[in-house]
Amino acid sequence: MTLPVTFLRLLRAQNEMVGQKRKKSAIAAEVDDELKEKRRVQWKLNQRNSRQKRTNLASTLTKENSDAAEAIEALERRLEALAGSAVVAREPMSVFRGNAAVRIIDEYYQVFQNGFATCPVQQQFQYDFVRKIMTTSTSFMNAQGAESVVNQWRLMTTSHHSLRIRPLSCEYMKEEDGVVVRAVSRYIVRISRNTLETLYPHVLSREALVQHLVGLEVDALDTVHSYFDGDGRIIRHDVVIDFVNPLIKLLGNVDLAAEVLNGAHLADNGLVDIERNDKRAQKALLHGDVGRPQLNLQALMSKLLATFMGRLQRPNLLQAQGYIGGRWNPSTGVNVGSIAAMDVVDTEAAVAAAGDALAAWKSRTPFERSGVLQKWDRLLRDNTNDLAFIMSTESGKPLAEAAGEVAYAADYLRFFAHECLRHEGFLVPSHLPGRRLMAMRQPVGVCAMITPWNFPIGMLARKVAPALAAGCTAVVKPAGTTPLSALAFAKLGHDAGVPDGVLNIVPAAHEAAPRIGRALATHPTVRKLSFTGSTSVGKLLAAQCATTMKRVSMELGGNAPFIVFDDANMDEAIDGLIQAKFRNTGQTCVCPNRVFVQATILQKFTDRLVDRVLDLTLGDAVSSGCHLGPLITSAAVDKVLVGGRPHLALGPNYMQATVLAKVTLDMHIANEEVFGPVVPLLAFETESDVIDMANATDMGLAAYCFTSDLGRAWRMSEALEAGMVGINAGVISAVQAPFGGIKQSGQGREGSIVGLDDYTELKYVAMAGLS
Question: What is the mean pLDDT of residues 470-484?
């Protein structure tokens, strides 16, 4: 599929863009208020006219409707007779014994569907019949409870317009302090905006997704547990609704269904509460204590796991539990679907396990540790397809790039497996006779690692490989959006012979991340913390680490310049820009964020760049031939304020690649890191000008320069304020080279022999008495 490219004329000034956003927000608020007022007026009008509609019903009913009305009256009489016997017996809910009442209600709906399908006031009949059910068959309930049930049912039918319910079963269970009734129903509802407002309010902010959903029919099951006290008064209702499987079936896309359900809030019982912002619904709750509708994400996760299992050659790579002390233990916390969500208690257990394993692991010879890493390297390469599929599915990284990342991670294991064999100390000349002076390297100890989602295996290997090679043990907190890749990596390490406790993986939900980060940063057993992520979080962790004076290495945000001089090979420069910018759909810390092109070639460069971007293919990340996958979350899409529209047919997180012209340094996009497929083009005149423009940032991770002038290449490499500079190269990372930034892009280096040094302490030894 060919990807269209939007070529935009940028806003003249930032304040104009802010003003337009505020104006749009104000207009949207006015429209929203107007719609609410219209709905309120319409609802009042319906209430006022309902009695008149009843009066005029006889003139509108056909003969078939009249026959149906008679059938309904007969059913009502049967129901009253059944309820009467129950009232005499004074046994609450005995009317449901043998499901007799359920069968009557079911017959009513059959008649209603056949006889009143064209009736203009069909809802009023539904209200009346349900009211009769509540006041006759559940006479043990107080009047307030019966009225509340009817009002809640009225609200649902009004909100969803076309709601059809078929009761399936009803069980009556006595308990010491009252009665519990479990009712299961099948319902079909056509999704409207009111439906989304009631059930999926978080979706309303995504208009394209709303348009896709409105009009679809959901066919689902719900289970209601009604609790009554000893006097027959209703206490509360708990409602569990399965929205997962119906949405998967409707949308034909597990990821899109997950996006619709995203935003629900985890409950202690492993279910998920759907936020309800409809005040009328809240007023209709029984005695103010009815449970909100809930959905069980287990069904969704089971579907995802089944999809994974069918594509993996080694299904046991898909681990859904934490890895602490060599055992796959479920967390003591709440499970999100089937993925263990750990917290501080689990983190402390992982640190303890790493501390217990440290002495034995560091006492192994470098040759023994190297052997484990080499076997791990081979296992990664042997399982490339499975690892790439897991990574691509959970992160959206195109499959070919994911496979390349697996090879990149294996390269780190191989490099440090060999490097640890020659990681030597050194002798120091003595200033006194009979003495020997030396410096030796020893492992730092227990190391904590917090890894990002955009390279879930590559960055994990870049941290874990040198740590284990040096004799350290590790506790890893992977990104909450990509835990499966980290757990699969750990599984292969376990198979390669990594001893219990040497490597520990602590997956966690987003809200637990700050607590776990603080626990790792302040724990006295942890002697080094390595973090890759945002600058703001890095600063916070560094401050927390200072309380125990532990070593830190930080790879933080970037704002990389990409400079093209008029003497550069334009084809090579565009190739390098495509490689650097659109890798992982623009979601890397070394992506060029500001593309400076010499003014004399800017128009020609722009035209040719647009042609190349047109050739990029946007598609399903796990499909072959895909250049661009989705952004990681809907929040990432929302951050891209200017750019192409989402491709809803593929999913809500797919974003068009975009080229922006006439960008100036006073615009936000020239001063903030953009994690997305957006290329801003800026013009420059001279070499000194572009050096000043490129360095006008607090960040200093990577920089790129294309020129055919060798002298200029040297000058630029020295003048650009960045930890890494690519000259005529769009891909600069290599396992044998130090990776890291300056300024607020971090401190310390990963990769290369320097990366191994960072996991050791240098100990000086002076030995006397040797004369």
Answer: 92
